[in-house]
Amino acid sequence: MSQENTLKSFFGHPRGLSTLVLTEMWERFSYYGMRAILLFYMYYSMADGGLGFSKSQAASIMSIYGALVYLTSVLGGFISDRIWGSRKTVLYGGILIMLGHIALATPFGRGALFVSIALITFGTGMLKPNVSEMAGALYPTNDYRRETGFNIFIFGINVGAFIAPIIVGYIGQTYNFHIGFSLAAIGMFFGLVQYSIDSKKYLSSESLFPNDPLEPEEVKKLIQKLIIWIIGISLVILVMVAFNIFNLSNVITVISITTIIIPVYYFIMMLSSQKITKVERKRVVAYIPLFIAAIVFWIIEEQGSVVLAMFAEDQTNLQLWGHSFPASWFQSMNPLFIMLYVPFFTWLWNKLKNHQPSSPVKFSFGLFFAGISFLWMMLPGLIFGTNTKVSPLWLLTSWALVIIGEMLISPIGLATTTQLAPKAFQSQMMSMWFLSDAVAQAINSQIVKNYSQGHQIQYFGILGIFAILVGIILLCASKKVKQMMNLID
Ligand code: GLU
Ligand code: ASP
Question: Which domain of life is it from (predicted)?
Fold first, then answer.
């Protein structure tokens, strides 16, 4: 990097931060733009330009798709650490994502949908964790700007996630789904152009190389492992076909069980490893209740693009000052509230300094707000019945509540994950954070099938109370968890 480029700064941060923030902003634009209309595209009838899936199938696919996208972050971390280095992995990931959106832009129906899911799943797994990793690497270990750097990063994610449903949602739902998906592809294209030009100028040359390249004998082992996986997957498919149970719903079930097993495997592997110290082992144990709390939080948060999206389409008055608007616009509420709350929470934590509640306490309050946001959604059904349309303010308030929870869980979880990571497993622990979201959506792929207009009061009630109960249990255990975190070496 030249002296001049190192000195140029972005709000007092390394110039590379703007490259990464913009790349992630466009990538999230394409992802959340696509998701804002995908649910409707899947369950609208063919006559209405959709694919004609049932609502429960479409909801289940949305969730398992979300699970896969975060599950592959494990693979993306491996590819960059050991094969290509972060910079190339991000570029290739971005190209796969763009191709995935192009696939949806074509009129090839369900086939194109599954091709697109595969491309975007692998592409995002390669891009997302490595962009975050490169953002962290811009700062020396104890640089005081790191935390604000991540706040700018999270803000960028949510700018993309906010604008996308407004544009892609409007065009997709008003004119044609395929034009909507093309806009998602164009967004990723802008991101790639920006990234290709700026990464050469502003990102370190170290990011061009893997930090722990594979040794030749490891390549052999890796190929063996790959073959075992391919044989394993083919066998599972064969057995399912032989027993005549190879259908979408069972495939989703198999993927969700696998997704839940993976973090269990990681925890056992870390806890039984010789490479970690006694203190580190305790910290990993302390991470387990936080991990479970994060799963319960994402179970509710991620249903915003599935169950709340259906509530928006079926039971909400889509009128604003005499103009109608598409249901997909509600997907902008989540990122909107994040952008509104970030400055307040940054101010609050700065003000409270050492008097802040501990992370387990913040997590339990996070769960409380998530739970309340679902209990709140029982009210329109209880007051007006479930067969009528209600004011958009019901959904708006629900998002306003759950996002208070997100502010207490998402940034805190990221920071705590890095703090509790044993030295030997730093990148694996980062993947664990994304796995909490993956597991949540894997569980959702089974739960959301039970949502229907007729049962929605019980549905929101049970999940809301469950989240609050888990929050209360965590609150009771918070002192013990904090002790085990043992953050003062
Ligand atoms: N919604 C955020 C994003 O898209 C966070 C997801 C997560 O941390 O699991 O980046
Ligand atoms: N809140 C999500 C993520 O931070 C964005 C979304 O669901 O639209 O950033």
Answer: Bacteria
